[in-house]
Every structure is written in structure tokens, then in C-alpha cells.
Amino acid sequence: MKTKRVPAAVQMFLLDKAKKRPERFLLLHPQVVSSAGGLRDSVARANKDTLWISYEKDLTEALLKTVLGPPRSLGKALLIHSLNPLSVPVLTSCFKRFASASNKEFLPPEELAEALQAENAPNLFIGASVDPDNQTITLWRGNLEPLTVPW
Residue 126: which H helix or E strand, with range? Predict the structure, then answer.
């Protein structure tokens, strides 16, 4: 994938326990959080432009428990794991935009980092999720905006 990159000015937190995956996100200059204890400081430093990427459901849940209180925007979140539907209201109050699907439904880490960093990120698709009950497919753009289409 050849895309023009923009400067890495956005603060990015990677919630992940994998040892090698963070190096695949070097384009985004991630600050890795691998335990619930590190979340409090990350939340304190987050702003409305922060990008959160989580591969760990338990760290996402710990993050949501940490931010309970007066609502403020923590930026955008990309949750690459199964999501508890009951968490959607909390996610909506904390993040101006979020996308969620399983690991296999998003680009591999290197390609994902490149697409998220690209100048034309809104025109790139980074993942998809299928809803067979409603017969829809949601395509996630590089700016985390969804595009839902019927079958």
C-alpha cells in the first residue's frame, strides 16, 4: 500500500500485552500500556486528539473504569477485540469516535499503522465487520468513520 504519510503529531496509546506487536506500530510512535496500573497516567495525559488502540479486552475494560466521572473526550479508539455491547454507552461518552471488531477483521498491524497515519486516511478502509442478523457490512475508514452497507 503506497500512501503519503503525515507527520506523527497525534498522541497514541497502544493497550497491548504482546511483546512484538508494538514495534509494528512504530510509525505512530505508540506509548505502550500493558497493565491496568499504567492507564491512570495515560488518561491524565490524553486529549481530544489522542488515538487509543487496544488489543486487550481486559485493558479496555480497565480503561473504561478509569475514566468514569465527568465526561471528557479522550480522542478516538480502535478496539481490536470482542466488545461487550453494554460498553457502547460508556465508549460513546468517552470517545468522539470508536471502531471495534476482532483482530482478523482489521488490517495487520504494519498496514494498519500506515493507513491510520496516511494523509488520505478517510479514503482508506482499515477493517470490516459483518452483521448477519441485520444483513449489513460495516467498513471502517482510516479516520474510524464507519460506512455501513446492506448485503
Answer: strand 125-131
Map residue 21 onto helix, strand or coil: helix
- Alpha-carbon torsion angle 144, 127, 56, 99, nearest 10: 30
Domain span including residue 46: 12-122
Residue 27 within any structural domain of the chain: yes
* C-alpha span between 32 and 12 (Å, rounded): 9
Q: With respect to residue 137, please indicate whether it lies within any of the assigned structural domains.
A: no
Which pLDDT tens digits describe the chain residue by residue (151 residues)?
A: 555 544 445 799 999 999 899 999 988 899 999 998 889 889 988 999 999 999 999 999 999 888 866 666 899 999 999 888 888 888 888 899 999 987 789 999 999 999 999 999 999 999 999 999 999 999 999 999 999 999 8
pTM: predicted TM-score of the whole model, two decimal places: 0.87
Sign of CA pseudo-dihedral 28, 44, 83, 145: negative
In degrees and rounded to multiples of 5, residue 80 shows phi and psi of: -105, 65
Give the length of the chain: 151
